[in-house]
What we know:
The protein is an alpha+beta fold. The protein is built from twelve helices and 16 strands. The chain has helices at residues 26-41, 47-58, 64-75, 88-101, 110-123, 127-132, 152-167, 183-195, 224-238, 282-294, 338-351, 387-397; strands spanning 9-12, 15-18, 78-81, 143-147, 171-178, 200-205, 209-215, 244-250, 258-263, 299-302, 307-309, 312-314, 318-321, 327-332, 356-361, 378-381. It has a five-stranded antiparallel β-sheet with strand order 6-7-5-8-9. A five-stranded mixed β-sheet has the order 10-13-14-15-16, covered by helices on one side. Strands 1-2 form a two-stranded antiparallel ribbon. A hairpin with a 2-residue loop joins strand 1 (9-12) and strand 2. The protein starts with 8 loop residues before the first strand and ends with a helix.
Amino acid sequence: MLTSDLTINFRRGTRVFPRLIKTDEARYLQDAARLIEIFEEFQERTRGELEAELEEYVGTGTDYRILRGLIKLLTDRCEFETCAPADPVEIRQKVFLEAGKLQPVLPGSKEKAEILEKAGDKFGASPDSIFENLYADLSANQRMISFEPISPRDLLDLYNLAQAQAILYRAVEMKISVRPSDAANYRAIFGWIKYFGLIHSIEGNAKNGYEITLTGAASLFHRSQKYGVQMAVFLPALLLCKNWSLRAEISNKQGPNLFYELTSEQTELVSNRFDEPEYKNPDIERLKKNWEKAGGDWRLENNRRVVDLGRAAFVPDLVLISPGGKEIYLDVLGFWTPKSLEKKLEEFRAAGFTKFIIAASNELRGSREEFLKQVENVIIYKTRIEPRALIEMAEKLV
């Protein structure tokens, strides 16, 4: 992902576009290849050494923002680690403690050698190693221990995708229209929305297609930065799906809000998600584990239905099944706000649908406003969803 200082976009009327580069252009492929080589060459060396080499390569050319963007994406593929014989903080404490006994300590002096030798004895390292690792925990002194390789063309594709993602950091709202599709495509789109915990509402049906509204980070007052990242990383997942069009309203401090539009037919953006693991919500996984001990005669199963609510649609995570076979649907929210929860409840009331439970984590509440209403279909939980509380609620709903 790119930071805001590395993003480049332009406007035409009320629309905003990411600045995309031509991924088959020789100069960009050459730059990408050289930058990848530098990262590969500097494995096991310090971040400071790597950054000095990159700084020399970037220079002051006209494409420096593009090059720095490519560098940011490559840095995200690295793992850096503090490599020292002991915790550098403990090394410094020992060295400074010994130095305090022998003041003054001059460079190259007998006292300096004695101090480093004592510290080396304590940590099982040579005096030279102790001196070299006094500040090994500083960012510039961390060593690159791994680098995930990538081809030059894939890096340029990733850069274009990151430019588009960055626009969505400031999204107020995103509307996705899904044309009539097969069930697998619907499940994929709804599944990705759930995977990233996005605040959403769904209208329509399988026959005519769906209109999905996602709440953007710019409309939240709490956890907006974290949520904005989730909105952005949803884009490459959506690119894997078909038969959709997107229109995102983007906050604009200089004037009226702008709009970013995209369709599944576009060819400029390439998804980097080729092998994403199956969606797993840790709260749901914990609930399933606890259910075996506390579920009693009720069964808990994964839901694979899209529940038709007339004008709206409901995609619950799980279904609770009573001993008599009655079903109560359970939806575990990702990010949410009291306003979005109330809107969802209004959809159920309009459809006359009551066989549902919504579980909302107080930790993922995207607004400082609390949901104070007592609703028999809603459970607000702090750390985990209690099976007994679900069963007690479900028994009142069957």
